[in-house]
Amino acid sequence: xxxxxxxxAALAALALVGGCTIGGSEPDPAASSAPAPASSTxxxxxxxxxxxxxxxxxxxxxxxxxxxxxxxxxxxxERRDTAYPALAAARVSQGxxxxxxxxxxCSGETTGTLLEGGRCDYAxxxxxxxxxxxxxxxxxxxxxxxxxxxxxxxxRCAARLQVDAACAEQGVRTVAKNLPTIVERLRAAAGPDVPxxxxxxxxxxxxxxxxxxxxxxxxxxxxxxxxxxxxIEKATKAAGARYVGLxxxxxxxxxxxxxxxxxxxxxxxxxxxxxxxxxxxxxxxLTDEGAAVVGRVVAxxxxxxxxx
Length: 308
Hints:
- This protein has about 300 residues and is of the alpha/beta class.
- Helices cover about 40% and strands about 15% of the residues.
């Protein structure tokens, strides 16, 4: 692959979970026509191939978020059946009641569109309003709510092979403004007995040393990641929800030497290269192994919250 294309793909990781690529900040066509979430009440008009399916009967996990929760894969497909919410529900089910999943996630969603709509089609107008309606209708069946959101608020800050630090700071401020409202409304709709788990993000910038290009330019992105995660944790805890960090699962602080694809790299680099496609397909979304790891982290957090 030509060096500029490599750097463009690496910079696309600033979107973290957008289902988009960047090269002048144009979205990938497969992502821009993302289908409506599979839901008993979500509209099916987001794309010709979209179809709504009935929510499972009985106890369920209500999953919200962006393309991480939707199971986005390189090339534009979504595999919700093997995305981390489904895997987390399956792990929790092993110890008790079998849990279904109502997955409302929308690839490319930002904190703003999750609040107001405009990315995917929902009967209630937005993903958050759809979740509130589901909780009103099926609240007694919901065992936990999961959410990942915020990465796409930084998407526009990576373009023309540069990361705009000022833009990234504004993106973090947007998350800090919108996320408290999102989590507070979910917390209120779910009621006091249903855990609301909000995920932090992994740091794909650790792969810069393996990719061998753009390290200096990516300093701003590393700062943005740290600010994003801090904003998510603060908003989550302030609303009485549970923050679920991913730094340990991604060995964020482990710089001991190991190998990846025959090259010696720090363990944290090998981990992000293994759990995402960043070092193989230049895409930051989770591999099957990555989805399984995040699913395990969410399941462990759910058990600690009393879900069984």
